[in-house]
């Protein structure tokens, strides 16, 4: 067992008594273990396979429900998340492959359990700022790691968190780009600001190292949105062009050739395979418009041969959250998800517009902006990935809900004080 294994063992298991002592620190520890997955950075199989996050969550729930105060604080998008979970449960019950669908439902239940208690625990501006910094650091760590790998001559290697392939890792890192930029600007400590800004810039080469085409589009959306919102002038064009040339200089030839296939997708087997999977998911939804073919990849793959568009096709994942929802949960599931997205964006723009009225720039609502951009980045990347149950995405939504509830409560207190 190496030094990294020992450090992670001490810190990881140390989060259990910490969670039993303080639910806030327990939540931070759980997010660190579950989202950042530092287990990916060690060598010992016993440490990698240790269920530290599971036991931290158990301790966190025990402390949270034993402590006085609200257990859940509900905002609009959270109702959508709960409705989506309920509909997934219905789709599990109606699935022809119940066991496979039940396994997916259990996994999704674990995914949203942490995010659902965020609004109850993250209830002050100070806690929110720390929580947002942690969310930014989760993908930022891999932005630093893979970005340095790419700049030092590395070519193809995703090296992301356990359980994520190259496409998932690219989306994860791209979603961290807006968070890293905005959080960095809030730090008074220069060394922290430098680390976050370094991760922000290295996230570009990191996404390139994954060779993910969907990740590349997500990365482009992230950088463009940040600079456009920040400057809204010719500076945006110049910054994006400069960044584009900088990234072009470090893109390996094989990766660039892979990017070029986006414009010639008819000749790319991978792209045509995804389109075939989209058509199959559509056929599945048309035949089962209410609850689809059954929750989860297992049920989808087993149903695939009965709905495939082409005889020579083979079962494969949809590689799109939209068609994934259609195939697994029908038009109702897709509708619930779209309403959740709409509610999230509406809440985010409401907070952002409030922040724009404050010329001092000190309003807490300003943090809605990076969360909004992160949601947009997910929507871009998710169009080409089967990641409707992406844990990091639900933390972004509930972080925005927590921000909304904190700002709403502060306004009530301010109003009461003025009266």
Helix-strand sequence: HHHHHHHHHHHHHHHHHH
Overall body shape: globular
The CA-CA distance between the termini, in Å, is 62 Å
Supply the number of helical segments.
Answer: 18
Structural class: mainly alpha
What characterizes the major β-sheet? none
Write down the overall mean pLDDT: 86
Integer-rounded radius of gyration? 22 Å
Quantity of strands, as a count: 0
Low-confidence stretches are: 412-419
The percent of residues in helical segments reads: over 70%
Strand content: under 5%
Subcellular location: Membrane
Keywords: Membrane, Transmembrane, Transmembrane helix
Protein name: O-antigen ligase-related domain-containing protein
InterPro entries: CHP03097O-antigen_lig-rel (IPR017528), O-antigen_ligase-rel_domated (IPR007016), WaaL-like (IPR051533)
Give a summary of the structure in a few sentences.
The chain crosses the membrane at residues 7-28, 40-62, 74-98, 130-149, 169-187, 194-212, 232-251, 321-345, 392-407. With 419 residues, the chain is mainly α.
């Amino acid at each position: 067992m190496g030094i990294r294994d020992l450090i992670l063992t001490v810190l990881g298991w140390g989060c259990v008594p910490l969670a039993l002592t303080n639910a806030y620190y327990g939540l931070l520890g759980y997010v660190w273990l579950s989202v950042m997955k530092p287990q990916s950075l060690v060598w010992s199989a016993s440490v990698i396979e240790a269920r530290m996050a599971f036991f931290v969550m158990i301790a966190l729930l025990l402390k949270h429900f034993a402590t006085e105060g609200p257990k859940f604080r509900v905002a609009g998008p959270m109702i959508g998340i709960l409705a989506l979970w309920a509909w997934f449960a219905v789709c599990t019950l109606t699935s022809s492959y119940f066991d496979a669908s039940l396994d997916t439902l259990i996994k999704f239940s674990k995914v949203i359990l942490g995010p659902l208690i965020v609004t109850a625990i993250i209830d002050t501006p100070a806690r929110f700022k720390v929580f947002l910094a942690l969310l930014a650091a989760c993908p930022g760590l891999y932005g630093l790691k893979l970005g340095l790998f790419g700049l030092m001559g590395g070519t193809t290697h995703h090296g992301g968190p356990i359980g994520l392939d190259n496409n998932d890792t690219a989306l994860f890192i791209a979603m961290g780009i807006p968070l890293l930029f905005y959080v960095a600007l809030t730090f008074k400590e220069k060394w922290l600001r430098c680390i976050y800004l370094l991760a922000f810039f290295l996230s570009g080469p990191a996404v390139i190292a994954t060779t993910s085409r969907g990740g590349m589009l997500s990365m482009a959306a992230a950088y463009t949105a940040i600079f456009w919102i920040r400057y809204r002038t010719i500076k945006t064009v110049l910054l994006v062009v400069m960044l584009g040339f900088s990234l072009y200089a470090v893109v390996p030839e094989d990766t660039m050739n892979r990017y070029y296939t986006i414009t010639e997708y008819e000749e790319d087997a991978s792209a045509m395979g995804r389109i075939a999977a989209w058509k199959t998911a559509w056929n599945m939804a048309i035949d089962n418009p209410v609850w689809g073919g059954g929750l989860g990849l297992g049920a989808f793959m087993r149903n695939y041969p009965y709905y495939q568009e082409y005889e020579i096709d083979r079962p494969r994942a949809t590689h799109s959250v939209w068609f994934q929802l259609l195939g697994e949960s029908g038009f109702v599931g897709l509708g619930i998800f779209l309403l959740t997205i709409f509610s999230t964006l509406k809440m985010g723009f409401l907070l952002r517009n409030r922040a724009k009225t404050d010329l001092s720039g000190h309003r807490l609502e300003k943090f809605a902006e990076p969360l909004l951009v992160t949601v947009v980045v997910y929507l871009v990347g998710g169009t080409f990935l089967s990641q409707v149950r992406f844990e990091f995405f639900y933390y972004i939504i509930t972080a925005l809900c927590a921000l909304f509830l904190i700002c709403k409560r502060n306004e009530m207190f301010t109003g009461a004080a003025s009266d």
